[in-house]
Every structure is written in C-alpha cells, then in structure tokens.
Amino acid sequence: MPVTPRSLRTLAALLLAALAWLSLATPAHAAAAKPNILYILADDLGTGDVSALNPSRGKIPTPHLDRLAAQGMIFSDAHSGASVCTPTRYGLLTGRYAWRTRLQKGVFDGGSDEPLISADRLTLPALLRQQGYATACLGKWHLGFLADAPPPSPAGTKRTMGDAGPPLGSRIVGGPTTRGFDYFWGCSNARTMASLIEGDRVIERLPPVEMLPRLTQRAVDYLGAHAAAAKSGRPFFLYVALTSPHTPILPAPAWQGKSPLGAYGDFVMQTDATVGQILAALDRHGLAENTLVVFTSDNGCAVQAGVDKLEAAGHFASAQYRGYKADGWEGGHRVPFFVRWPGQVSPGTRHAALIGHGDFFATTADLLGVRLPATAAPDSVSFLPALRGNAPSLARPALVHHSIRGQFSIREGHYKLIFGGGSGGYGKPGDADARSQGLPDAQLYDLRADPAETTNLIATHRAEATRLAALLHRIVADGRSTPGPAQPNDDVVVLPSLKSVTVSTKP
Which of 300, 324, 310 is nearest to 261 (CA)? Predict the structure, then answer.
C-alpha cells in the first residue's frame, strides 16, 4: 500500500488507540497477574453448617459466609484432601496426596513430630515467595515440628510436651518458617492451643478460649501492616488456618448463647464473624479489589460436636450427605469452597467441577504463569479455567479420598468406589461391623443419582468398579495422578485386596 498522508494519519490513529487501550488494560492485567491471596481454612466445619449451602436443613446463621459465597463462585463438588486434619493440610500446601508419605492413617498428635513436609519439597508458600510474595501462616499448623525445650527449672522439674504443647521458651524446629512462610503465629493443633508460637519460639501460654479472638485480630493486624506494601507491588499470601469450630468447642463469652443450638452453634457463628472481620479489614485497607479470597474447611463436621442433638433440632451439618469427619462417605470430605476474585470471578456463580484442596497449588501456578518442576504438586490440577468461566468441566481424571483409618476411595465422574464395607472412620457401620454383618467389602455409588450414598451398586456394576480400582492402583504406583514422569512415594502404599472387585493394573 502506498504511503500517503491519509494512510499515515490512519496508522497514527490506530497506534494512539492501541496505546490508549494498553494504558487501560495493562494495570488491570498486572493486578490480575499477581493478586494478593487470602486462604481461610476452617477446622471441622461441615458443608451443611453454612446456611447458604443448606437453606432447608441448616439452622445456624452465617451471614458473612453467605455474603462471601454470593460475591464469588461456589464450588459444589469440592473436597478436602482427606476426612481429617493433618493430611488435608499437607495436600493443600504441597499439591500431593498425604498417603504418599509415612502418614497413611490418622493425624499427628500435636506433640513432637518429625515434619511431614520434607525440607526439599516445593510448597505453595515457597513458590509464592519465589514470585515476590510476602507469606504468612496464622493459626493451626498440624504438620509436625520438633521442639527444643528450654533447660529444666532450677528445682529440676522435668518439662514435657503433653497435650499442652511445647513449654514456654521452646524453639520450634522444622515448623512453618522452614517450609516457605516468612511469618508464623499460632499453634500446633486444637489440643495444644495453650502454647502460642510466633516464628520459631513458644512466646506465651494462653487459655484456649482466647485463641480464636486473638487469631482473628492477628489476621486483621497483618492486613493492615501489609496494605502499603501490597499496593506498591509486593503482594501477600495469607493462610489463615482457623482453630474453629473444632473441639474443644469454646465460643468466647461474647458469643455464648447466641445460637439456639448450643455451644456448637455459638462457635460456628463466632467462626462466621471471624471471616467477616477479616473481609472487613480487606475493605478498610483498600485491598479487596486485588485480593483472591478462598474460604473452605479441612473436612466435615465431627461427631464430637454433638451431631445427634443438632439433627434432633433440625440442623444437619453434612447437609444431605452421609457421614461426618473421619469417614470415607461424602460428609467426611465434601466441604464448602468459595472463591471471590473481583474482576476475574463472576459473582453469584456456581461450578460443578470436581476439585480438591490440593488443586489450589496448580491453580496458583497457572494464574502466575509459572511452570512447575516435574517433582512439584504431582496430584494438583488447575481450576483457573473454571474461575474465569471458560470451562464447563476440568481435566481432572479422578480424585482420591482417604479416611482416618486409611480407607481409600476414588471418584471419577459421578461414580465413587470405596475400598471397604464400612465408614472407614467413626460412622456406623464401621469396617469391622460391616464385615460381621456380611456386607460387601467394597462400596460403589452413583453420586449423580444417589448423593446420600444409600444404594451400594457393587454387585451390579462390577465393570465400573473394576475400572476404578485399576485407576487407583495406577495412581498409587505412578506416584502422581497428573501427566508427567513417575515419582516415588515416600513409603510403601498398601491397597486392600477386594473379593468384590477384580483388579488389573493394566491400562
């Protein structure tokens, strides 16, 4: 095309338009590329404890969580990494199933445990720190650390850990600040809340009833202290691991008697208010627009919360699902999961994608444009396309569940195979009772038709069960459930031999 004054004017106009578009688009894109991240993990909050998720059979008001859900996306098929605390937290921070480690049943006792996350494993906070984030963990750790106790008192009294946790002045070895976090303030677990840790030291002994209010204020203070840095280009990753509504059920005096359902209802309401105060701090400091907020729970509600009395009063903490914390049934590991991200996630939306806590690792890498090494996050699948409304379904091939007693189950599509005849936890019947009752040694459910897991299809759908069993065996053997080179498990992973299912590990 010949160069003429008119063509030059046209070209100049196009360039000016492009520059004007870039001046608008670049800041928004940059903000979206590195948002602040606030991840709030409740402790033993059932999916039916949030009133927005259980309007007909939930009796505890949760206005702040309901509002958060309305402001973002609800994932209706979200699951914790296991139906108990420690393995779920491992999966979230590593993108790897915890049963690949030495911990293949139960949880840590809160005493002196070798760290479950190995020092050479890339963690989510370490990844974010590499990308320029300030990283902080507030609340419950429950992933193990060792403690060097201070010298005995002059009287020679021996100091032990016990349920109270490490003594005042103890040095924490292998804790959160050695696994990717710049800062830690909290406790080991719910049984050791009396020992308050900051950084790598036990700094205070406090009454456990004070932990949640203190934790709430610490989160609010952190946001205030980091607001200026976040606005000037250093985003933060704040992981708030609540200690509620886990037992001991200890609502603060100001919340006692607020719920008609007793202490558990009071504690859930206080938990909801904690979330509200943290979100209000985001607003107050002008951080909400560039902060990706996730709220979820580490597993379902515990039977120790008094579920029989709750249900008698019309409150069903697992909503329509069977079982509770520790079980292999849906009530053990199906959890609330809300994501709010202004300008990126459409408010008031729902997604039916099958996701797990461990998927947040790959999702974070995806949104930052980071290519993970082959050894990192081997069981994590990004759900970023779902957040941006671009995917009706995700590439996840299957999700593996694990109960407190080490019972495996695997979910793909709408079918779920449980490797055992009972709950795998504290629900009835337990595995031993199921065997004594002559129940099949495996359970297969069609969750689309039977979300309450009432009809075991193992006798009529053998081909489906066999296929799922083979898939689980391959996931275990490969050391990963995502594409990539095989990885070693940390220990031998033993799967049960089921008479009900013919297992073949061939593709």
Answer: 310
Out of 142, 226, 315, 357, the active site residue is 142
Along the 507 residues of the chain, how does pLDDT read in single tens digits?
344 444 434 344 333 333 332 332 333 333 346 999 999 999 999 999 999 999 999 999 999 999 999 999 999 999 999 999 999 999 999 999 999 999 999 998 866 789 999 999 999 999 999 999 999 999 999 999 998 877 665 554 444 444 567 889 999 999 999 999 999 999 999 888 999 999 999 999 999 999 999 999 999 999 999 999 999 999 999 999 999 999 999 999 999 999 999 999 999 999 999 999 999 999 999 999 999 999 999 999 999 999 999 999 999 999 999 999 999 999 999 999 999 999 999 999 999 999 999 999 999 999 999 999 999 999 999 999 999 987 766 777 799 999 999 999 999 999 999 999 999 999 999 999 999 999 999 999 999 999 999 999 999 999 999 999 999 999 999 999 999 999 999 999 988 877 777 655 444
Domains, the chain, in order of start with CATH, read 33-151+159-387 (3.40.720.10)
CA atoms of 182 and 126, how far apart (whole Å): 9
DSSP 276-311: HHHHHHHHHTT-GGGEEEEEEESS---GGGTHHHHH
- Per the annotation, the verdict on 85 as an active-site residue is yes
How many helical (H) and strand (E) elements, i.e. helices and strands, does the chain have? 12, 16
DSSP conformation class of 334: B
Give the residue among 403, 420, 396 at the shortest CA–CA distance from 471. 396
Residue 332 has φ and ψ, to the nearest 5°, of -80, -30
Q: Residue 338, SS3?
A: strand
What is the signed CA dihedral for 292, 378, 186, 50, rounded to 10 degrees? 50
Q: How many CB atoms lie within 10 A of CB 269?
A: 21
Q: Between the CA of residue 152 and those of 167, 171, 197, 440, what are the distances in Å?
A: 10, 14, 20, 56
Mark whether 187 is an active-site residue. no
Given 64, 79, 85, 137, which residue is catalytic? 85
Q: 10 Å Cβ neighbour count for 136?
A: 23
